[in-house]
Write a structure and sequence with these properties.
The chain has 544 residues and is α+β, with helices and mostly antiparallel strands. It is 34% helix and 24% strand. The protein contains 18 helices and 18 strands. It has helices at residues 3-11, 25-36, 73-89, 111-124, 137-143, 167-180, 229-235, 301-314, 378-391, 409-422, 436-444, 447-457, 473-482, 488-495, 498-501, 504-508, 513-521, 525-533, and strands at residues 14-21, 41-45, 60-61, 94-103, 133-135, 154-163, 184-187, 189-197, 200-207, 213-223, 242-255, 262-267, 273-279, 282-286, 290-292, 328-339, 357-362, 367-372. The strands form two sheets. Strands 3, 4, 5, 6, 11, 12, 13, 14, 15 and 16 form a ten-stranded mixed beta sheet that branches. Strands 1, 2, 7, 8, 9, 10, 17 and 18 form an eight-stranded mixed beta sheet that branches. A hairpin with a 5-residue loop joins strand 12 (262-267) and strand 13. The chain is globular and about 70 Å long. The model has no long low-confidence stretch (mean pLDDT 94).
């Protein structure tokens, strides 16, 4: 029986303190915070964990310097403090990085004002990052010769942080943390209905994969459905003070544009910020900010033309970027919080909306609703949801703050002593790849010790399993047994970032893809590959 199957059995006819609906960042941190404090927790998502909004972020962990423009000092302060906490708690995952702001003709602010803002931002963040550094045009040209400095007035580099790995992987770490202390989580489980009877919620669920029905009982519901929160609340006739509106963001992934590990920040022609963000040997260009009314979005020709045009104007590339240079695309909505409107939301000042969150409690119906939010603020969300659940009568143990963060220094030292003894980083010679030891520790923490044991027993476990993926066979076995992969995209896009940095055509033709499918799905391997790539896909007949 797989981990997911076991969890489905535990969900069915189970009785829980809290049912969390939604496995994005808000639901994941809520499950981790509540279960670590003794609550019995069930978490479901009708898709994969982090399979919607939370997989479409910029991978940035930042205090929101742009919110200073609207004098949102308390919000910036709160985000900076959360960023600092994440950097302390996840030193291998959340890394400080420089942001080089290029001040050209489209900048809405003069250089001196940007400099004042950067130093103010540094102070608001308790000076926990490197100090801002104003730069002349000559300095910008010297440190980043790829930048087209024609018309540029100068620049300033300030510091924030980013996720070394992908956003969805970070979300799953909270799901895994919650399960480790007793939470029951399952992806591809849809809430069909829920009714409140005699002070308790009775939820009727459907396993999207098999079609089987389940039911459970819970005292409190946490609505962490992100862009779908309002619709879910309406189904329960729940009236809230807040509501959600959508902003669409698009990112394009291309080959690495600059070898320097810093973010390049520009103002586009509409005077909004967009970035070139490092992702290993790739660069991510984005994001756009377009008001939409539908949470389901895709990258359009207009989106591509806009971003490629903006970046080609601002970089001195030998050959301008074109559509064929795009390796992967990301499109998603930001669920932004506004006060509930009696009329249309069309008159809202769209540009003034920030990524704040609100946690709202309905005492009569025993529902906690999480509006908005972002990766940077996730620890605050977890704590606020725990406080809200306590107000609804669920007893929680004192918060020891053990529901987040990487293992301590003793574990880290022990792990790297073992990897040095095994000379694990010498097991392969792949130019430009991250050392095996660092990646295993960052991605798996204490689970990486078991991986070392498997590599000792079988050195082939330290081999790459897909041609250009930089993903080890031992990682795949761990994923198959502990990470509830249901579809190939769960693995390629969310448990790993393979499809973010590798063209789908290359993945499709990769030697080793059949082995990947067999390890993940067993006898369902071929059907899962066809589901992902299309009906014309065929497995290697030699291995059938």
């Amino acid at each position: 029986m797989t981990l997911r199957e076991a969890n489905l059995d535990k969900l069915d006819n189970g009785k829980f303190d809290v049912l969390i609906i939604g496995g994005g960042i808000n639901g994941a941190v809520s499950a981790a915070a509540l279960s670590a404090r003794g609550a019995s927790v069930a978490l479901i998502d009708r898709g994969d964990f982090a399979g919607f909004t939370s997989q479409q972020s910029s991978n940035l962990v930042w205090g929101g310097i742009k919110y200073l423009e609207n004098y949102e000092i308390p919000l910036v302060r709160k985000l900076c403090m959360s960023r600092n906490r994440l950097m302390r708690a996840y030193p291998a995952n959340v890394k400080e990085i420089g942001f080089l702001g290029v001040l050209g003709e489209t900048s809405p602010f003069p250089p001196w004002l940007v400099g004042v803002g950067a130093f103010t931002y540094w102070g608001i963040g308790n000076f926990k990052t490197n100090a801002p550094r104003p730069m002349s045009v000559e300095t910008v040209e010297r440190i980043e010769p790829i930048i087209n400095t024609i018309g540029t007035l100068g620049g300033i580099e300030y510091a924030d942080a980013y996720l070394k790995d992908n956003d969805a992987r970070f979300v799953f770490s909270f799901i895994r943390s919650a399960m480790d202390v007793g939470a029951i989580a399952a992806n591809y489980v849809e809430l069909e209905s829920a009714e409140r009877v005699k002070g308790k919620w009775f939820a009727h669920l459907k396993d999207v994969e098999s079609g089987s029905r389940l039911s459970l009982e819970a005292k409190v519901i946490v609505n962490a459905a992100g862009p779908f929160l309002d619709g879910l609340n309406q189904s329960w006739n729940l009236h809230t003070r807040q509501q959600i509106v959508y902003s669409k963001g698009v990112h394009l992934v291309v080959d690495q544009l600059t070898p320097n590990e810093r973010v390049l920040a520009f103002f586009d022609d509409s005077q909004r910020l967009f970035y070139v963000i490092p992702m290993g040997n790739r660069s991510v260009i984005g994001t756009t900010d377009t008001r939409v009314t539908d949470p389901y979005t895709s990258v359009t020709d207009q989106d591509r033309d806009f971003l490629l045009g903006q970046i080609n104007d601002r970089l001195a590339l030998s050959t301008p970027l074109v559509n064929s240079d795009i390796i992967a695309e990301r499109s998603g909505v930001r669920p932004l919080v506004v006060k509930r409107q009696s009329k249309s939301t069309k008159d809202i000042d769209w540009t003034a909306l920030s990524r704040k969150h609100e946690v709202e409690i309905d005492h009569a119906k025993q529902i906690v609703s999480i509006f908005g939010g972002k990766l940077t603020d996730c620890l605050n969300v977890g704590e606020e949801v725990a406080d809200a659940v306590q107000l609804l009568g669920i007893h929680l143990n004192p918060d020891q703050r053990r529901w987040y963060g990487e293992p301590g220094r003793e574990s880290l030292r022990a792990f790297f002593r073992q990897t040095r003894g095994m000379r694990i980083d010498n097991m392969r010679d792949k130019p430009g790849s991250e050392p095996i030891s660092e990646r295993l520790w960052r991605r798996y923490g204490r689970r990486a010790f078991d991986m070392l044991d498997h590599i000792r027993e079988d050195p082939s476990m330290a081999e790459d399993i897909l041609d250009s993926s930089d993903y080890l066979r031992v990682e795949l076995h761990n994923t198959a047994s502990t990470e509830m992969v249901v579809k190939l995209d769960d693995f390629l896009r969310r448990r790993s970032k393979i499809s973010l940095i590798t063209r789908e055509s290359e993945v499709r033709e990769s030697e080793g893809l059949d082995e990947v499918a067999r390890i993940l799905f067993g006898e369902k391997a071929e059907s899962k590959l066809v589901e992902h790539f299309g009906s014309d896909f065929q497995m290697n007949a030699d291995q059938n």
